[in-house]
Amino acid sequence: MNEKNKSIEEIIKSNKDKFDFHVPPAFIWAAIENKLPEPVKKRTILSLWPMMGVAASFLLIGIFGASLFLKPLKRDTQLITIDAYYKNQIEVGFKLLDEHNQLPDDLALELEDLERIEQELKEEIAKNYGETREIMIKRLIDHYKTKLKLIELINSKTSKNTMNHENKTI
To answer: pLDDT-based confidence at 166, cuts 50/70/90?
Structure first.
């Protein structure tokens, strides 16, 4: 190869022993160091993977927690439906009692007790989940049925009394 075609690296490698015996004096190295720019401190860049893992964990915990709290809300639609149905039936029964103007005092006291029990059952339903909640809902339905039967019984007696009273006047 020609001297012209050789790269500088090849020239230095081939003449290495000629360069090795020259050692620069210490003051030259000091001058070179003074001219060099200050080294830039490297910032350690945290990998995003660990932070993304933590964020994903929080997200999963949040989703799981939200699903636990949202399930009772979905179930409450069942409770609202049951409550609305029986409240409507009870209201119809009360309207019939009002038509006859015969709401016995004993019935009023009994109905107040039933209202208190109803509120206690609803509070227990709100506190419980799973099978216990289902049992409490069944108890609430039984409670409503008992209330309806009581109102129907009073209505049937008052309507018989009204019919007997009408028959006697004829």
So the answer is: very low
